[in-house]
Amino acid sequence: MALRGVIFDLDGTLIDSRLDFDAMRREMGFPEGQLILEGVAALPDGERRERCLTILHEHERRGAESATLMPGAQDMLAGLSARGFPLAILTRNSRAMTQLALQRLQLEFSHVLTREDAPPKPDPAGLWHICQAWQLSVDEVIFVGDYRFDLVAGRAAGIATVLYAPDGPPDYAKEADFVVGDLRDVIRIAALLAEPNRASAASAWFPPAESGESLPRHPRTGFDR
Predict the structure, then answer these.
(1) Fewer C-beta within 10 Å: the chain N or C terminus?
(2) How confident is the model at residue 196 (pLDDT cuts 50, 70, 90)?
(3) CA 45 → CA 28, 50, 57, 96, distances in Å?
């Protein structure tokens, strides 16, 4: 079926809030590599859990107050909107941080789901919720993100994924259906997928203009990447 809607991750994809996760872990007393939301959720109710939540909210507040748009994000969103695609956000960030950042940067979306609204990614429930609200099937939507959790959530939901990798494809890039080095290339992908008879000719690796890199053909999709 033809593409009819685009869902985005927020931080690292559309905006840069410069969240320092290593600093959060140190302040919370978590070991290196500990997933912060999952670590906090596993703590029993009590003083330490409340302290960790305060640390998280303070970092997110400062991030929202200083957040900037990722390169090409404004042009991409304008281009997709001009083509009539509804746009939504699914983020692991808090509702307060998300609303503050979107208001500051004057960004509007038909639906915005935060960790208070749906289980955090990689759980796919938030993606299904947005599809249901749009009254679209999962094969009429793509999900754009910058981290492996976005790819895992998209695949679990049955939704095609676009990995934003401005510094080059990471080792998990082969889990994505498309990889872009420039957000504006999402417009190209959306235009191709809006015409199903042309989608099979699309290249799944859209490097920055100065790069000649390519990725091997993906066995699941058949796209070159």
Answers:
(1) N
(2) low
(3) 15, 8, 17, 22
Q: Which two tokens stand for residue 66?
A: 């200083």
Helices (H) and strands (E) in the chain, counts: 9, 9
Give CA torsion, residues 51, 54, 58, 61, to 10 deg.
Answer: 160
pTM for this predicted structure: 0.84
Q: CB neighbours of 25 closer than 8 A, spacing ≥ 6? A: 31, 32, 34, 36
Q: Which tens digits make up the pLDDT trace of 7-65?
A: 999 999 999 998 888 999 999 999 998 889 889 989 999 999 999 999 999 999 998 99
Q: Kindly report the number of other CB atoms within 10 A of residue 54's CB atom.
A: 12
Tokens for 87, please give them. 């746009």
Place of tokens 């994505």: 176
Q: How far is CA 64 from CA 68, 201, 209, 216, in A?
A: 9, 39, 30, 38
Whether 120 contacts 92, CB under 8 Å: yes
Cα angle, residue 63 at apex, residues 12 and 69 outer, rounded to 5°: 45
b/e sequence 148-181, b meaning 16+ C-beta within 10 Å = bbbbbbbbebebbbbbbbeeebeeebbbbbbbbb
Q: Is the peptide bond before 122 cis (omega within 30 degrees of 0)?
A: yes
Q: Biggest alpha carbon distance in the chain?
A: 58
Judge contact between 92 and 121, C-beta under 8 A: yes
